[in-house]
Design brief:
Helix content: 40-55%
Structural class: alpha+beta
Number of strands: 7
Strand order of the largest sheet: 1-2-3
Radius of gyration: 35 Å
Number of helices: 9
Largest sheet: 3 strands, antiparallel
Amino acid sequence: MEQAEERLFALRAAARKHQVPVAELPGLFDTLAARLAALETGATRVAELQAAAEAARAAYVSACGRLSEARRAAGGKLDRAVARELPPLRLSRARFVTGIAALAETGWGPAGADSVRFLIATNPGQEPGPLARVASGGELARLTLALKVVLAGASSVPTLVFDEVDSGVGGATAAAVGERLTRVAERVQVLLVTHSPQVAARGAAHLLVTKLTAKGRAETRVASLDGTARREEIARMLAGETVTEAARAAADSLLVGAA
């Protein structure tokens, strides 16, 4: 009895010392034993972790090297493919470059150790710069179109929206824009805002957007055009407010050529 009471008193004293209930003393013992073992074998564990970290870094650097090589190869192919699309879009003097630069180690991440940017020089002798700074609005729209033509097959985006990608161009250039939009539309849905009859004639569907004032309020209306209505609208885009038979004939020519 005395031995049991002494044991009980000792357990209660240990519980008060460590500020835990008596029933939790076995768990506390296991925790402290594990900490002690870690302290005794700490140097060995640190060495193991250092070796693992060095191996992981070496594997990462090797993977980044292979990724960088693949990026440079893909960048060269992209540059050449885009270059073939630029002359018909009235960008024959432009030079598109995929800029790939190594990042400082602090910038490394899941995407690798490279910084990748799309650059362009719009005039001969000019150093390529970021698209947003160098290209004008119209140039940027046509460059985007060239990129989409080249990359449409690899894009996961189901719908592309172009707002007046044909702005400031006409004739053969507008026809080239329309032809490229048609190629993109073979792979993804394309929605386009345009004032060009050459481009409008290429669409699989033609929606006429008008704005009017009714009862003191502005309203925007959208109507689907087919057959004669579409022909008339394309003729109006060609001739202006007064639609002539020559404009209708030209509209017919555009629609037949786009079919």
